[in-house]
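The records we work with from here on pair a chain with its fold. These numbers are not coordinates but entries in a learned vocabulary of local backbone shapes. To see the layout at work, look at the sequence and tokens printed below:
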Amino acid sequence: MSAHSNIAFFIPHMGCENLCSFCNQNVISGKDLAPTFEEVRKVCDVQYKRMSPNQRKNTQIAFFGGSFTAINRKLMVGYLDCVSEYVGNGGFFGVRVSTRPDCIDDEILDILQSRFVNSIELGAQSMDDCVLKKNLRGHTSFDTERACSKILDRGIELGLQIMVGLPGQSAWSVFETANKIIRIFPKTIRIYPTVVFRGTLLEKWYNSGQYRPLGLDEGVDLCSKLLELFNKNNIKVIRLGLHSQKDIEKEMVAGIYHPSFRELCESRIYLKKLKNILKNCESGLYKILVNGSEISKVVGHKRSNVLNLRDSGYFLKVVGDDSVAVGDLVLL
């Protein structure tokens, strides 16, 4: 069973000998320095005392950023030992770590499992070797497949992270990556549209005209289709777009970033559903029943869905009705 929340610690760039074309983890994580053991213990202790036993059992301690399993071994074990006393026996659900596909082997998995790590996320980014090479990832799609197999064989929950809009990446490549991931069948996935940050190789390519990032509408269209595809195959999309942070807006040069990117994608899915149920209807006024929690997504950002359909002669009144399942629409 997946945890519902994380106590997150970010370890930017530590352990990663590679510098990918797009990477500026200090901006992405909002952190310049890794936490000390004392800081990790203090945060865990405060959260442990604040949460009820029921809350703790639905919470994981998470080490994100960098490549956790590639950092100095003594440091990695030290972090895990810091949090071990807070896991199990009425404590937190377990530990989640993120790392690179080429930094997983049996020895590392033995260490992780002995210290309550029950979820591992791999930054696959793409399953297209040409795209991986172009962006200086330093690993292959086979490395990802091998690491995934080892993790799943251990019964550890697997998560994958992919990017869209990378240099050298076509829409065909994106969906080939998605289909390969579906065959691997991770529990969760994060989808990140590419953002050009200052100080990266990607910024140089962008400034020289070698790279053209996707536009927002292109990105929404592509990612909404990925969201539908993964949902259909029971792979939970736990993140769609970068976290909303001031540093991202300040340091980005180009690319796709929107604080409500996921909702834009979900809204695009609803627009497609609306068009489908109205395709055989005459123009006019219609009432649409939706789950109350989904009204804003159905209406669209700045009423974009309603206005789009109005241009085609359909005038919609969207009404919340919690008897309607999330994702469904009822036309009246």
Remarks:
- Residues 129 and 140 are 6 Å apart (CA to CA).
- DSSP finds 14 helices and twelve strands in the chain.
- The mean pLDDT is 93.
